[in-house]
Design brief:
19% strand; single chain; globular; 340 residues; five-stranded parallel beta sheet; three-stranded antiparallel beta sheet; alpha/beta
Length: 340
């Protein structure tokens, strides 16, 4: 009996236990410390579970309750995470799953091989794979810790495309620290070398980019990005998240002239650009400007409700193009050779 860890795989060679993970926006919700009760709480209660080997799902039968829960592949959920940690997060218990675990499990175990066998009451076309490469701004909230824009975006896109178009989209998130476009393209290259082939690539840009003052370097990285996307005929979207950052004040600031020049360079090279700043002001006016209000020593990453509104807007901007690009397309995973 346990409320903490649900085993998916015992790796005797590395002496590791991989947990069962369901990717959700609040990545610290697997276990949360109740300060007043001095107890750890989780989503799961006592009961019995069994793994369905045909589709790698888990059946969970709760004790003293007439509820049988079926959860999707836990290794796949782990591989999709883009968790980062923050020293100023307000969650009392640190999440033991860091940024390296999803990278390792994706390359070593390739849980994406089970995507076509996944249990679905109503079949969807695909599944198609999307990778989102971003910084801590897409993975953190200074208020509660790991609150992921990528995970929330996946839910919004699955709701939009799955309900209206019967398309299945799985979003893998990878997060890197600040370091410019070169680090994001490096991370994309590592993902493509060890993980599933992708149909859609979403890259974040923000104002703290070394390439902003060196246009010739930006041209090199954009060329690398194009080359990597062409390997699988992937659709590339670049979004400016300048409005998402705030340091000791409200966010939703305008992009700098240097950032606008970089965006114009990407546009001239044929990349699809998404600039949500102006629309975010309209979407968030009833909730809060994007930058969270000062909170201890943080004041950089957004509040959860602002991340929710941003994900909804990004999904609305992405969905029409994805609705044109994905139907009838053979998933890039099916065209892989020599990597399974």
């Amino acid at each position: 009996m346990t409320e903490r860890v649900h085993l998916r795989l015992l790796d005797f060679e590395t002496e590791q236990i991989w947990p069962w993970v369901k990717p959700i926006p609040h990545g610290d919700a697997w276990h949360t410390w109740g300060k007043q009760t001095s107890m750890i709480g989780s989503w799961y209660h006592q009961g019995s579970f069994a793994i369905a080997q045909a589709d790698a799902s888990l059946f969970w039968l709760e004790r003293d309750r007439s509820r049988l829960v079926r959860l999707a592949d836990g290794l796949l959920g782990l591989a999709k995470l883009g968790n980062l940690r923050s020293a100023v997060a307000k969650v009392e218990l640190l999440d033991p799953i860091g940024a390296l675990a999803p990278r390792a499990i994706s390359g070593e175990r390739r849980p994406d091989r089970w995507l076509d066998r996944r249990h679905e009451p109503r079949p969807h076309a695909g599944p198609y794979v999307m990778v989102m490469i971003g910084s801590s701004l897409t993975a953190l909230s200074d208020r509660i810790g790991n609150y992921s824009l990528g995970r929330r975006l996946e839910l919004e896109l699955q709701r939009e495309l799955g309900t209206r178009d019967r398309l299945r989209l799985d979003l893998f998130q990878r997060s890197v620290q600040a370091g410019g476009l070169v680090r994001r393209v490096d991370e994309l290259e590592r993902f493509l070398a060890s993980g599933p082939a992708v149909d859609v690539i979403l890259i974040e840009l923000h104002e703290l980019e070394p390439e902003l003052d060196q246009p010739e370097h930006a041209e090199i990285q954009l060329a690398r990005l194009r080359e990597l996307a062409d390997q699988h005929d992937a659709l590339v979207a670049i979004f400016d998240d300048t409005a998402l950052a705030s340091i000791g004040r409200d966010g939703l600031r305008a992009s700098s002239p240097a950032m606008l020049e970089l965006l114009e360079l990407a546009r001239d090279q044929g990349f699809w650009l998404i600039e949500p700043s102006d629309q975010l002001l309209r979407e968030l006016i009833n909730d809060s400007p994007w930058g969270n209000q000062p909170w201890a020593s943080g004041q950089i990453h957004g509040a959860p409700w602002a991340i929710d509104r941003t994900a909804e807007l990004l999904a609305n901007l992405l969905a029409p193009r994805l609705r044109e690009f994905l139907p009838g397309r053979v998933p890039a995973r099916h065209r892989e050779r020599g990597r399974q």
